[in-house]
Write a structure and sequence with these properties.
Elements (H helix, E strand, L loop, with lengths): L30 E6 L3 H16 L3 E3 L7 E6 L4 H17 L3 E5 L5 H7 L5 E2 L5 H11 L23 E5 L1 E2 L10 H5 L3 E2 L2 H13 L4 E5 L14 E2 L2 E2 L2 H9 L4 E4 L12 H5 L6 E3 L7 H7 L5 H14 L4 E8 L6 H14 L3 E6 L17 H24 L5 E9 L4 E5 L10 E3 L11 E9 L4 E4 L1
Parallel strand pairs: 1-2, 1-3, 3-4, 4-5, 6-9, 9-12, 13-14, 14-15, 18-20
Antiparallel strand pairs: 7-8, 10-11, 16-17, 16-19, 17-18, 19-20
Helix pairs in contact: 11-12
Family: Belongs to the methylthiotransferase family. RimO subfamily.
Protein name: Ribosomal protein uS12 methylthiotransferase RimO
Pfam family, one: TRAM_2
Length: about 450
């Protein structure tokens, strides 16, 4: 077993695509492989594409050689992520030769074809029909109506016991460092009844944890004017309450700290949703936030955090920050460190600023030298690590609920309510774990704590 590294980049994580059982494939069945890069929102897109292909009679291959063509779902948020995507496309071309590209980087088709002119087709993010059209053109479907049936549930790229639940697309913010609105458009919320219905199906299929994702979860329903349809209101508070009644863990990601977020906290205190908020604060100095075109209310945010903790003392706060943003002075960075000292966030990650083609931040003056960015990143993470270590040490001797993610011959890898998969820490059980299975929710006593992980016993 290995602990999640603290600097794990979910935008660079390559999803493991589950294979169909080769023995279940019929002769001549067209087969598609997929490489899925990027954030959980892109992972949901990959699941939807594969579900549609399975329903049309395609088989899924876990490797290049077994596929008639390969879809690469790309990330295009940072230049480093773009480079990773180009590398993945190049690898797929070398190993298979027939490659269809989709995802965020697909919003820049000339960028892709300039590097890889042999790709069969390029489509943008969440353009499901265009991806299917490209697959049909390259690998025509050949369904057998007596054998190929619509799967009882969708194709999942996550373990069976948890699933991402995407509630909206796009974003209405205009942050200068971000091009997501350019790639994915403005906010488009799904109908609340459709989200709840999908969640009900997931829970019925055995999902124990729902991870609610979007680009701006707090803004869910704004574009729909918070309409009520089929008994469900398109507002994040109402949606959280509806999901909380399904009996699974509900974890909220990408929540901007709007004033109405405080309405979610009593739901956490009552146990309807997990006491966990993933909030992209990005920075704490007012001038830096202004240059980012973000709300410059760091001091007010501290008041909000205090109010949340007063209502729900066990709440876990996770956030990410950008260090070395153009114009960031040493004094501004020190303000961020001081703010972090006061905020005492539980889970913290950071990125060193980098230019992204098309982002307005590229044109800002006073870009920070790379060595200074690296130094600030290390100092920031050192402080965040010390806070995490102290908070986890305080849990030694307590009894907490955990969900089991994996069991091998060395032990069970679990997560507490304070830990999201892939990006946060783990709790390890190395004795008496033999009867556990992934998806079990059990109570443990914490015996030991590290910088990011815990160890415990049943």
């Amino acid at each position: 077993m290995q602990a999640n590294p603290p600097d794990l980049r979910p935008d660079l994580a390559r999803a493991r695509i589950p294979a169909d059982n080769p023995g279940d494939r019929r002769d001549g069945q067209p087969t598609i492989g997929m490489v899925s890069l990027g954030c959980p929102k892109a992972l949901v897109d990959s699941e939807r594409i594969l579900t549609r292909l399975r329903a049309e009679g395609y088989a899924i291959s876990p490797d290049y050689k077994g596929a008639d063509a390969v879809i690469v779902n790309t990330c295009g948020f940072l230049d480093s992520a773009k480079a990773e995507s180009l590398d993945a496309i190049g690898e797929a071309i070398r190993e298979n030769g027939r490659v269809i590209v989709t995802g965020c980087l697909g919003a820049e088709p000339e960028y892709i074809t300039g590097a890889h002119p042999r790709v069969l087709a390029v489509t943008g993010p969440h353009q499901y029909e265009s991806v299917l059209d490209a697959v049909h053109s390259s690998v025509p479907p050949s369904p057998d109506p007596f054998i190929d049936l619509l799967p009882a549930s969708g194709v999942s790229l996550t373990p069976r016991h948890y699933s991402y639940l995407k509630i909206s697309e796009g974003c209405n913010h205009k942050c200068k460092f971000c091009i997501i609105p350019d790639m994915r458009g403005r906010l488009v919320s799904r109908p609340a009844h459709a989200v709840v219905r999908e969640a009900e199906k997931l829970v019925a299929a055995g999902v124990r944890e729902l991870l609610v994702i979007s680009q701006d979860t707090s803004a869910y329903g704004v574009d729909r004017k918070f309409e009520t349809e089929r008994g469900h209101r398109a507002h994040i508070t109402d949606l959280a309450r509806d999901l909380g009644g399904l009996g699974a863990w509900v974890r909220l990601h990408y929540v901007y700290p709007y004033p109405h977020v405080r309405e979610l906290i009593p739901l956490m205190a009552d146990g309807l949703v997990l006491p966990y908020l993933d909030i992209p604060f990005q920075h704490a100095h007012p001038e830096t936030l202004r240059r980012m075109a973000r709300p410059a209310a760091a001091a007010k945010t501290l008041d909000e955090i205090a109010a949340w903790r007063a209502i729900c003392p066990e709440i876990t706060l996770r956030s990410t920050f950008i260090v070395g943003y153009p114009g960031e002075t040493e004094a501004e960075f020190q303000t961020l460190l001081d703010w972090l000292d006061e905020a005492q966030l539980d889970r913290v990650g950071a990125f060193q600023y980098e230019n992204v083609r098309g982002a307005r931040a590229n044109d800002l003056p006073d870009h920070v030298p790379d060595d200074v960015k690296q130094d600030r990143f290390e100092r920031f993470m050192q402080k965040a690590q010390a806070i995490s270590e102290a908070k986890l040490a305080a849990k030694v001797g307590t009894r907490i609920e955990v969900i089991v993610d994996e069991v091998d011959d060395q032990g069970a890898t679990c997560r507490t309510k304070a830990d999201a998969p892939e990006i946060d820490g783990n709790l390890f059980i190395d004795q008496g774990f033999e009867a556990l299975s992934p998806g079990d929710i059990v109570t443990v006593t914490v015996d030991e704590a590290g910088e990011y992980d815990l160890w415990g016993r049943l």
